[in-house]
Amino acid sequence: MAILLLISDMDPEEWDEAITRLAQQRRVRVWPYLEDPAEIEYAIVWKPPRGALQGFPNLRAIFSMGAGVDHLVGDPDLPDVPIVRFVADDLTEQMSEYVLHHVLLHHRRHLEYAEQQARKVWNPLPQPTAREVRVGVMGCGVLGSAAAAKLGAIGFQTRGWSRTRKDIPGVTTYAGSDEFLTFLGGTDILVCLLPLTPQTRGLLGGKLIAAMAPDGALPGRVIINAGRGGLQNEAEILAALEDGTLWAASLDVFETEPLPESSPLWRHPRVVVTPHNAAVSRPEPLFDYVLDQIQRFERGEGLDNVVDVQRGY
Fold first, then answer.
1. Mean pLDDT in residue range 275-294
2. Burial 101-138 (b: 16+ CB within 10 A, else e)
3. Is 276 among the residues known to form the active site?
4. Domain limits of the chain?
5. Is 131 a catalytic residue?
6. Of the listed 85, 109, 159, 228, which one is catalytic?
7. Among 21, 26, 276, 282, which one carries the catalytic annotation?
8. Which of 81, 243, 272, 277 has the most CB atoms at less than 10 Å from its CB?
9. pTM of the model
């Protein structure tokens, strides 16, 4: 039996060495170069074409190459087998680094200093301490909980919101729709790490931004989105920047990727654009994770981080 590797939007040359190493443990077939679909027991996938996972009669599990699975669960022809999210220390650490970096970038008013540097202006700006700034993490799964805990550890007033309540050391947590506006109303810098579902699509827009705290220690509201591009309404984000409702933004994901050259987000002086690299799945940790899951599964111990297809995460 064999593992199917189906990678879209990635450079396969970057994976050659790791695939060779994986093949030392299990037979590997790279889509679409298949001889016998019946030999495929497991599939490691990223953005598979719709219907591409049909026709494997012995498929036992699908492993997503990322923490998100929106690239999978919208496929009506998806086989009825467990789908497993990639959850590993490597990915969690990368996301925490991204979140801390961008929170601190806005907290220390770096965009304003960069603009002053371009004009050769020497002008120290008022600087609140971390304990005066309220950071809210929206989406407290594995990645969000880790980032929130680290923000709290360096002194920020940290709060987290998720569909169900989480217990995170040093973090005030909120849960469900009844506590959502309370969470937003006490947030100066909002970090979005929600999964993309029909309920969250377009959520990060004008109405949500206006519900954030209007009286923070920073010059204005800040949003950081390292979740999914479909979570944000870019036209409303730009409008909020222009009318002053929103002070600044760091965006790692976009409605269309790569971000079109025509997008005003590229040129906005208070927007940081990064190319969907907040947390990148690297071959070695990913394959180690998959092989460990397969071995445990075949010993009858079950799979970790299985997706609820109805909820979308």
1. 93
2. ebbebbbebebbeeeeeeeeeeeeeeeeebeebbbbbb
3. yes
4. 2-86+281-298, 89-273
5. no
6. 228
7. 276
8. 272
9. 0.93
Overall CATH class of domain 2-86+281-298: alpha beta
Fold of 89-273: Rossmann fold (3.40.50)
150: Cβ–Cβ under 8 A, 6 or more apart, which residues?
Answer: 96, 99, 100
DSSP state string for the chain: -EEEEEE-SS-GGGGHHHHHHHHTTSEEEETT--S-GGGEEEEEEESPPTTTTTT-TT--EEEESSS--HHHHT-TT--SS-EE----HHHHHHHHHHHHHHHHHHHTTHHHHHHHHHTT---PPP---GGG-EEEEE--SHHHHHHHHHHHHTT-EEEEEESS----TT-EEEETGGGHHHHHHT-SEEEE-PPP-TTTTT-BSHHHHHTS-SS-SSSSEEEEE-S-GGGB-HHHHHHHHHHTSEEEEEES--SSSSPPTT-GGGT-TTEEE--S-SS---HHHHHHHHHHHHHHHHTT---SSB--TTTT-
- For 77-124, the pLDDT digits (tens) are 899 999 999 999 999 999 999 999 999 999 999 999 999 999 999 999
Distance CA 85, CA 61 (A): 11
Q: Which of 270, 204, 205, 281 is closest to 242 using CA atoms? A: 270
Give the pLDDT score at 222: 98
**pLDDT score, position 286:** 92
Residue 10 predicted with pLDDT over 70: no
Q: Is the pLDDT of residue 311 over 90?
A: no
Whole-number average pLDDT of the chain: 94
pLDDT tens digits, one per residue of 163-197: 999 999 999 999 999 999 999 999 999 999 999 99
